[in-house]
Design a protein that fits this description.
- This is F-box domain-containing protein.
- By secondary structure, the chain is mainly beta.
- It contains four helices and 26 strands.
- Among the domains are: 39 residues, no CATH class; 234 residues, no CATH class.
- Helices cover 7% and strands 43% of the residues.
- The strands form four sheets. The chain has a 16-stranded mixed beta sheet that branches.
- The longest helix is centred in the first third of the chain and has 9 residues.
Amino acid sequence: MEEPAAKKTRSSPLLPDWSQLPKELLEIITDNVNCFDIVHARSVCTSWRSTFPFPSCLLRSNYSLPTFDKLSRETNEEGSYILGKIPYFLFRVPALTAESPSEYFFGGIGQAESEELPCPIQCSVKVKIQGSDSTFLKMNDCQIFPLGHQYRMFGWELKDYRGVAFLPLYKEGRGGEFVVLLNYYYGKLMVLTSVEMKWKRFEKLSETLCSNVVTFRGRFYVSFLSRRTVVVIDPHSLEVTDLMPLPHTGLNFLVPSGDDELFLVEVMVPSGDFDFNRFTCNVSRLDEEAGKWVKVSDLGDRVLVIARLGNVSFSAKELPDGCGVSGNSIVFTNWPQDVALFYKYGPYQGSAEELPDGCGVNGNIKTVWRTSRENSGVILNTFPVVALRAER
């Protein structure tokens, strides 16, 4: 018997080939999903790699800047440095077991497009730990937190500078112009404008030693080692404005949290005692309208990280319990030891007489940001990425 026509032909509609979508539409799609989802997709096969453009937010912008003599600080006619804008991320590597310590990497990444490398290299990060060869760490299973961008000077030795800040000038008729502030060698502040392309000592602050220079909401902020204030520098006029004086002179660290908040961490050292475990901190946030710092005892889910070439912050709300890093804390990775110090707000364990004025008082107990005994960490590396092993 002849089968019914319906059974004679079996056809299934072909799935549409999404790779044939217009290039403009693919770019819109990639700009609205997590950049590392695109990186992972590019790692599937050669076809997918050629279809998806590399995420624009991961591309590194470079600027060629003139060199200058390290003694006279006069601009050289020959040679150049490269100022790189690096996408900066926090990577948490999955622990082998629930009891294993967590490992974190703070650092920038770039594009590896060599045809000699396999596709999976697209979701790997090159890591160099002291005492070992460079290795590629696969990022497929890592938790990844974007931390904005940081600027680095390539062609410099680490000992020659302590940080660099860059701001473009968005003004009619001045498209493409920019200003660079360089915290150079023992706190000397240098400035370069794209109009002149010459390095100069920032004369208005030439008598003070700079500790931090950052950008926040389109302006430069500078703290000092020998001055009880933070100043604001307008990038267009280079005019300097002092914020309200700080209560103490000491180690000050500026920590931007995107364009949402700017934090100031003041480290207080007990008289005659350089035991890092006994250091305490004051933390303040900037009240931009009032031009003053407001003390805070609660950072919410934020973690502030004080690092060698730039301070960052991130939200810990997506980190699992017991991973060694929690919100409302400060992590120092820049002390001259291979130990990471975690700070929490709470009662001071030492003598109250050691603490400076201005610490919170709860009954007869002084409360302050102090080292936390519930967390510990070991610094595995500080450059080009900060590698941290955190334990509880």
